[in-house]
């Protein structure tokens, strides 16, 4: 009798402890579940971003499209389109059908070298493009060239490739080198580990439930009912709810930062001007020299925008009756300048000098502005970011022609270094050169 009572007490104590364990494990199970939800949201966000940046990717030989896009926009876009359209140089659509990879790489590294080697294709092209010299990109290795080709291919075929983005995204993702991949690997491993822990916990829970005899109640529920109860539990769980709120806050912050990095970059900006002045007509067809209107471009910091008086040199006689020309007269009569909308505009913290680049550096307007003489409305072709300035300073050789000052500097440079003297070797990367 006494023994019987004893064993019942023991039994109920055991059951009490079992319930304690069950509760603890349930809580643990729920927090892991909550974490898994957060991690999957983060992961789906990360992969969604990947596939937007590499969507429409049909990489050629494993080039990285996103990187290619950046390289192309910073270095080639002012002279080449990804379509067949001619800008300064030929459109690059179908390039890989015309030329093999080895030729393309050699050309990009040293176009004048290929021309000088007597290559017929190159010489014909050079003549066709009025002997316009393409900038050399000697520092581009296979990675860069392949990335650019992959981008050209995907962007040129964008509408067609967009239909099957998934197939392209995978190989592109595999070769991506950025930090994004690393995070994805961590997230996936976390998810797998959490999945395993969840399965193990479920097993333990079931075992304990059976031991405590509590399963009898739940066993009568169908699988669907159990699932429903579980989902309700999850939705009601505080941890899950705060996890979702946090996930939202994190994503919103990230979106804000992404947006902020884009602020101040106006590549492609082409505002409507108060008078429909056409560079295509004046600089292109009539071949008026740029410096005739932009008088400061070879001698000063600013190119300057011409005053109405310069227009009057011709328009006091030409097209007097045109309503657009009447606007010039109105400006002069009212003694008010024409309010041209500024297109290119660096922030005040940066110092840029035209004469240093056009006169001393021997660069052409189109190296930075694209083919203005073909534009009806001026458009900003380069990004004008700090990375863009630095990039060019890294790879452009200092122009030492007819410049006594540089002759000595170059001799000194050549004595200690094999490569040609680049702008960076002359202080072109020093903060103070570009920042007040
Ligand atoms: C300053 C203008 C300019 C820039 C910048 C420029 N190119 Fe060119 N490119 C040309 C011109 C002009 C030609 C035509 C040949 C010539 O006149 O030298 C050309 C020709 C080519 C060709 C041969 C095209 C064909 O149809 O066979 C390729 C390939 C090419 N460029 C790739 C590039 C790449 C890639 C970049 C950027 C990394 C680039 N170019 C940057 C002006 C430029
Ligand atoms: C007949 C006078 C005239 C000639 C020639 C001319 N421009 Fe202009 N340019 C203007 C006027 C006026 C504006 C301002 C209105 C506009 O943006 O279209 C301007 C604007 C510009 C801008 C944009 C300025 C900004 O706000 O950022 C650039 C860049 C430019 N010109 C480059 C050139 C180049 C390069 C050439 C030679 C190929 C050239 N221009 C020839 C009159 C001229
Ligand atoms: C070197 C002479 C010259 C200068 C300088 C010049 N233009 Fe012109 N412009 C012309 C000629 C020529 C035409 C074409 C007339 C025609 O279509 O027959 C023209 C056409 C135009 C037109 C088109 C008019 C229309 O209704 O078809 C506008 C607008 C114009 N110019 C604005 C300007 C402005 C603004 C300036 C000053 C920034 C300027 N031009 C400077 C020679 C000049
Ligand atoms: C090395 C690159 C580079 C070259 C080469 C270059 N520009 Fe510019 N240009 C710029 C930048 C950067 C700005 C914006 C400057 C600013 O906001 O202070 C600019 C601005 C301008 C403007 C707007 C007014 C001003 O002076 O800020 C005009 C007009 C202009 N450029 C004309 C020309 C002409 C014409 C040539 C060729 C003779 C030329 N540029 C060559 C980079 C260049
Ligand atoms: C297309 C190539 C190119 C781009 C783009 C370019 N630069 Fe330059 N820059 C040069 C070259 C070439 C020189 C060397 C001129 C020389 O002294 O021979 C130079 C020189 C300079 C110098 C003088 C450096 C020294 O050591 O004396 C400054 C400052 C400068 N650049 C600022 C800028 C800024 C700011 C930007 C961007 C808004 C910019 N550059 C964009 C090619 C470029
Ligand atoms: C060749 C010219 C050049 C050199 C060298 C240079 N910068 Fe810049 N920097 C720029 C230009 C142009 C901008 C503005 C472009 C923009 O807003 O994207 C800029 C912007 C910045 C900004 C503001 C960024 C922002 O988002 O507003 C900072 C900070 C900066 N530079 C720091 C530096 C430091 C530090 C160095 C030296 C290690 C340096 N820069 C060297 C050209 C240069």
Description:
This protein has 436 residues and is mainly α. It is elongated, with a radius of gyration of 33 Å. Helix 16 crosses helix 17 (323-333). Among the domains are: 17-58 and 179-261, no CATH class; 65-174, Cytochrome Bc1 Complex, Chain D, domain 2 (Orthogonal Bundle), CATH 1.10.760.10; 385-436, no CATH class. 16% of the residues are buried. It contains 22 helices and no strands. It is 62% helix and 0% strand. Residues 290, 294, 297, 302-305, 344-346, 352, 354, 357-358, 363, 365, 367-369, 384 line the site of one heme C.
In short:
With 436 residues, the protein is mainly α.
Number of helices: 22
Mean pLDDT: 80
Shape, principal axes of CA atoms: elongated
Structural class: mainly alpha
| % residues in beta strands | under 5%
Radius of gyration: 33 Å
Ligand catalogue? heme C
The major beta sheet can be summarized as: none
| Element pattern in H and E | HHHHHHHHHHHHHHHHHHHHHH
Stretches where pLDDT is under 50 for at least 5 consecutive residues are 49-60, 160-179
Q: Helix proportion of residues, in percent?
A: 55-70%
Span of the ends, CA to CA: 97 Å
Number of strands: 0
